[in-house]
Amino acid sequence: MSSSSEPGVCTVTAGGIVTFTAAGDCVIAANQAGNANYLPARELRQTVLVYFKPQTVQFTSVPPTRGVQGRTYQATATGGASGNPVTFSGPGSDAGVCSVDTSGLVSFLGPGTCTIYADQAGDAQYAPATRVKQTLK
Fold first, then answer.
1. Does residue 119 surpass a pLDDT of 90?
2. Residue 104: its pLDDT value, please?
3. What is the pLDDT of residues 30-64, one digit of tens each?
4. What is the 8-class DSSP label of residue 126?
5. Is 4 helix (H, G, I), strand (E, B) or coil?
6. Which end of the chain is more exposed for a tag (fewer CB within 10 A), N or C?
7. Which pLDDT value is given to residue 5?
8. DSSP characters for 44-88?
């Protein structure tokens, strides 16, 4: 047996043990040599789609019950196993209420509802985390 997949997706030992190492298509090819009495067997292939492992982000900070103009709040969150940093963003339609930098520092600008988003990128093994949000008034 041998592997002929996208580079780094899987490995196959001579004994047929498949190890998945990243997301993508793993193509496993089975071969049998011929001998003096038999021709080589026709190669058979099987493709296995290897999915990214999921990861999640969750806020670890508790937002203030009220944002006060001129004050700040440091949002924090933990991420999954990709090792990529959790990044923060926001607001969209409520831009006059607050601003958020990528480190999670929220500055309150005026009255209204402020929404903070936390994201984490994926890598060769992990999918991007599903975006989570925190809402402040």
1. yes
2. 95
3. 888 999 999 999 999 999 988 888 999 999 999 99
4. B
5. coil
6. C
7. 57
8. EEEEEEEPPBP---EE-SPPPSS--TT-EEE--EE--TT-PPEEE
- Give the pLDDT band (50/70/90) at residue 12: confident
Q: Is residue 77 pLDDT above 90, yes or no?
A: yes
> Token pair of 2, please?
């041998």
| Cβ(55)–Cβ(124) below 8 Å | no
**82 to 73, 85, 86, 97, 123: CA distances (angstroms):** 26, 9, 10, 33, 6
Cα(132)–Cα(104) distance, rounded to whole angstroms?
A: 13
Rounded-to-integer distance, Cα 7 and Cα 24, Å: 9
| φ and ψ at residue 83, rounded to 5 degrees | 85, -5
**pLDDT attached to residue 40:** 94
* Token pair listed for 131: 């975006």
Q: Is 100 helix (H, G, I), strand (E, B) or coil?
A: strand
Strand partners, 26: 48
